[in-house]
Amino acid sequence: MCVGVTRGVRLPDARSAVAGQALTHLRTAAAQIGPLLARSLTGDEPAEIPEDLAALLTSDRVAASLPVQAKYHRVTPWVHRALATQPALSAHLSEQLLEQQRDSMTLHLRALGTLAKLADPLDSLGVRWLVMKGPALAKLVYKRPELRPYSDLDVLVERRRFADVVSSLEEVGFRLLDTNWALIARTGAGQVHLEDPTGGAVDLHWHVLFDRGSRQIFAIPMAEMLERYRSADINGITTHVFDPVDTQLHLCIHAAQEGADRLLWLKDLEQVARHDGGDWDELVARARRWGVGLLVAVVLSRARTSVGAPIPEEIFEALAPSRAWRRLARDADRLFPASSSRGYGNPATLLARSTRSDVPSSVANFAGGLGQRLRRLAINHSWQRDSSKWETDSSASLFYRPDDGGSLVDRISFFDWVQDQGD
Q1: Is the dihedral of CA 18, 21, 26, 27 positive or negative?
Q2: Is 314 buried (19+), middle (13-18) or exposed (0-12) by CB count in 10 A?
Q3: What is the dihedral sign for C-alpha 41, 342, 305, 362?
Q4: Of 226, 112, 99, 216, whose CA–CA distance to 162 is shortest?
Q5: I need a labelling partner for 118 at 20 to 30 A (CA). Which of 61, 196, 224, 342 fits?
Q6: DSSP string, 236-252
Q7: pLDDT tens digits for range 115-126
């Protein structure tokens, strides 16, 4: 989950016309920047940007948009290196990109420190646990690990020991950030958020799907995924990660839940397909069993369109037999390319988030979501994603603290409920 991302801009009614023009202006810059970002991601090393694309940076408006968009897509190291030899890269713009890279390196080192702090307590408990995404991908997939930035640590532990793990980490100084236990229990949250004494962030999962509604739709076998682990050495720490096929499927599921509009997520899939991919037939078989075939097809198609992921055409046909669905996904990517996204949401991101286990349910969910967005646009003059889950003063946030300080009874009840869930 991506904390702290601005999901949209509310346009005050009195200034809606002027603000609307400004937003259109901004999105035009985003559309111009998009191909430059995507081009930098070609191959295992940042690809040199052609002069015609680099020349866009002579526009102050486009140049101002570049660091914002690169940061959203988490591809700043790629972009900066790809532009290094271009005269159009001003000293000021170069320094902005370097500052972002320094910030990313700080978070990277902090996350590795956090991993070191939690490894011993988890091993001492004798629980199954593995590292997801960030450091696992940087270690196993990318030829240049520094090109895969990440800000927090995602760790999966076996469900039956989830409460024990949280308690053990709290005993060694980790702080549980979630406080809205009534909401957490109501949604059946698949993870909690912790912070180590130095500020390092941990998303501790017992499931890869966040809410019980999603788990009722998709049959993800967590116990099997934990059993299929492979060992990996991350910064001198022996840990476990998903097997190659589960890695691909998890990346698709995670990206879809968030709209699949960040280039780094799509680059992850491209790099996995090139360097760490599993058996395509097994991927299709697991995706079908889990009910995520359509979802995986949408995200893999976007990865191929956006960053050239080497996905065989027959895989899309096997995952999504409906030709109309495949066409819908490709048309959405063509009209609303991921590279131009800045996190405000659009029909392509909505399609990824709306995809269910079958075409009729997916279409109905997409149509319903589209109607809600259009009504929001008419009323608020804004097509924006709901960001209230990250606002601590909102009762819709996991970090909201009720007047009673958060019910201890609700907390205990939640962890008991997790333990009782089936695999």
Answers
A1: positive
A2: exposed
A3: positive
A4: 226
A5: 224
A6: TEEEEE--HHHHHHHHH
A7: 999 999 999 999
